[in-house]
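thought: user wants a sequence for this fold. calling inverse folding tool.
action: design(structure=
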């Protein structure tokens, strides 16, 4: 099988090989610019309505989690009377990056963003 593929590759013209090489380089560059990189949080906090994964300091993560809880309470007070408002739901998962530079490294295909929502 490998010999057959090698023989077939040897029969390809040099111009076609060069085009395959260009395509491979283009796909590599696009992959580098678009594919998200792995991220490993150093701090995990759990609040009443959120689970916060963070690489920021514990104090910054706690401060942000507290502010998100206040925002959640304000949101539920305003929209809690709507018939489709769900009080019982799974905790919201939040990735908190230490700075903009780290956010852009992990998500290279995005422009500037304060929040980025994606399905699990």
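)
observation: tool returned 120 residues.
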């Amino acid at each position: 099988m490998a010999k057959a593929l090698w023989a077939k590759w040897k029969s390809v013209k040099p111009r076609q090989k060069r085009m395959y090489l260009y395509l491979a380089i283009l796909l590599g560059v696009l992959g580098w610019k678009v594919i998200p990189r792995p991220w490993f949080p150093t701090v995990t906090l759990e609040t009443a309505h959120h689970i916060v994964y963070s690489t920021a300091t514990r104090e910054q993560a706690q401060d942000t989690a507290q502010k998100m809880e206040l925002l959640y309470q304000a949101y539920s007070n305003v929209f809690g009377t709507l018939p489709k408002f769900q009080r019982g739901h799974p905790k919201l998962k939040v990735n908190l990056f230490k700075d903009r530079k780290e956010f852009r490294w992990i998500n290279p295909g995005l422009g500037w963003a304060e929040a980025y929502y994606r399905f699990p």
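thought: summarizing for user.
answer: Here is the designed sequence. The first helix runs from residue 2 to 10.
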